[in-house]
Each structure stands twice: as structure tokens, then as C-alpha cells.
Specification:
Elements lengths: L10 H11 L27 H15 L6 E4 L21 E4 L2
Antiparallel strand pairs: 1-2
């Protein structure tokens, strides 16, 4: 399941490209291991991002899949920074709370 990709375009454009290029996943069934799906982000007025995260975590549990992600907070017009100095450095414009 593809949530995002590294690219120079802003987040909303990357999400649009994913939905144009990949089939959206039907959450009523587990994902198939040999398929790739796009995961669209809900519009902020439609679903709270933390609620979206909780639902995804619950679905992973139902499907018997590990869930290793966290919540990332960043501007929707932000692009991925190219950071080649150190893998341990964080980008100051983003905040991530990793859960396990």
C-alpha cells in the first residue's frame, strides 16, 4: 500500500499522481500480497487525521499485518527535503511521532 513517495512535488500533487496511477484499495478486504494500491488521504473536513490513523491501525490488526508507522505533521505544500548529511538528522519542518 503506497501512502506517499519521495519526489519534488508538493504532497497534494504526489497524492493526486498516486491515485491517478494506482488502483485505490477496497478496505472491506485485506490487501493482496502481489498487488500495489494507492491510499488516498481524507480531506481534513471529512476525517480527522488521527482518526484516519486509528482506522488504518485497526484494519492492519484485522488483516493480521504488522503496523510500524507513526503520525507525520507537515504542510501539504511541503516537498521531501533532500538530506544527505546524516540519517540521524531530522527535517525541522516536519514532526513525526513514531508508534510501534
Amino acid at each position: 500500500m503506497v501512502f506517499d513517495y519521495i519526489g519534488s512535488e508538493p504532497y497534494l500533487r504526489r497524492k493526486q499522481q498516486l491515485t491517478e496511477g494506482l488502483d485505490a484499495h477496497d478496505y472491506s478486504v485485506p490487501p493482496q500480497p502481489d498487488c500495489v494500491y494507492s491510499v488516498g488521504a481524507p480531506a481534513p473536513r471529512d476525517l480527522d487525521p488521527l482518526e484516519f490513523y486509528r482506522r488504518l491501525k485497526q484494519l492492519n490488526g484485522q488483516w493480521g499485518c504488522p503496523f510500524y508507522e507513526g503520525v507525520v505533521a507537515k504542510r501539504s505544500d511541503s516537498s521531501y527535503p533532500v538530506q544527505l548529511r546524516s540519517a540521524s538528522l531530522e527535517f525541522a519542518g516536519w514532526m513525526k511521532h513514531r508508534t510501534g
